[in-house]
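Researcher: Quick one. two chains, 444 residues in total.
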Amino acid sequence: MTATGPATVPVTAALALGDDALVLSHRLGEWAGHAPVLEEEVALANIALDLLGQARVLLSLAGDEDELAYLREERAFCNLQLVEQPNGDFAHTIARQLYFSTYQHLLYADLAAGDGPFAPLAAKAVKEVAYHRDHAEQWTLRLGDGTETSHERMARACAALWRYTGEMFQPVEGLAADWTRLEERWLESVTEVLTRATLTLPEGPRTGAWSAGAGRQGLHTEPFGRMLAEMQHLHRSHPGATW
Amino acid sequence: MVTGTALEAELLELAGSVPDPELPVLTLRELGVLRAVHLHDTDAVEVDLTPTYTGCPAIETMSVDIERVLRAHGMREVTVRTVLSPAWSTDDITPEGREKLREFGIAPPRTRRAADPVPLTLGPTRTRTTTTATNATAATDPAMDAGTSASPPPTSGTEPVRCPHCGSADTELLSRFSSTACKALRRCLGCREPFDHFKEL
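Model:
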């Protein structure tokens, strides 16, 4: 997909970023036909498409995109556990997107400003992700500062996914980022959005001994296996098939 | 040695005349996605094409169309390369391209200001009914609003998105994402017609 020489690309980092984008893209795609309103159907599908495009570029830097997406086993994926979490209700999807898009936007802006192998993609993707982040923030405000029910459900979603947010700031080999500073900026932004949405920053640990922090090392939560089975089923059933 | 400059220019123009598969009123040149044409031999050519969005599915059709046109012009070997850098921006759409979009019923993108900081807008929620009318226009696209996260989002200094049908500046955002990744859905409060807006990137 790109002109960047694959030899210079840190494969671990390409897979980490690529798997995040691929897995979240697939999760968002699961909303097709089920979103609460037509506009959201279109929005979530468009965000999924952006992420899929990013995944294709990143995985192509690491190897053959189709082989990597469809023929790896669960333990070979190094996406964050956050992005593999099921869609849940709409509030869960928005909370997941808020946490991830804020992280991705800050990280890609840093990568775009550098001259590393991911700078060209990051410079392009950061502009797309700005829309994803804005979309998630707008919905967080609407739901948090909405009705009693929407407030309660948004609060529940933010709390449920909180334990998966610590993993985002584990250093990734081959990515030149200031992870401590990234985490500070992320916390600052999320705190601000939640506060404006009349929500409070969830309490409790952001990683756990068993619950989080290992997606990058190939350890995933239970729902991921089922997602992967669905995503890979067609390709594995018809090897080499094309349109 | 083949310099091929004249031929390269001719091929660039030919490739540039290919219509965009999703917005056929625009050519690839007007869309600004055609970056370069390099002639490697008298009949082997390499074309640099950049996607609008990273995941834009139209790029494959564009490549096939370019290849077809250039082969018909006598090129034996046509290679279309996808290049990401420098990233495409809606500022790359030519003035005539913008005019064609408007005539087609799509509000063209506004020009981005140089060196936009982190683009963020946090609009008030719709439950705040007292300010609904201003919210609607205030909730513009994030790429244009350099405002901080403090409310209300700034509108002053930001050019309004005009209705492509009646020209009214009184339009509201319905959805940040529309029929394709590059458009947002808006509604004119003057003539009440919904319309697509090619959003700034």
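The interface with chain B takes residues 1-3, 39-40, 42-43, 45-47, 49-54, 56-57, 105, 109, 119-121, 123-125, 127-128, 130-131, 133-135, 137-138, 141-142, 145-147, 189, 192-193, 196 of chain A (CB under 8 Å).
Researcher: Thanks, that's what I needed.
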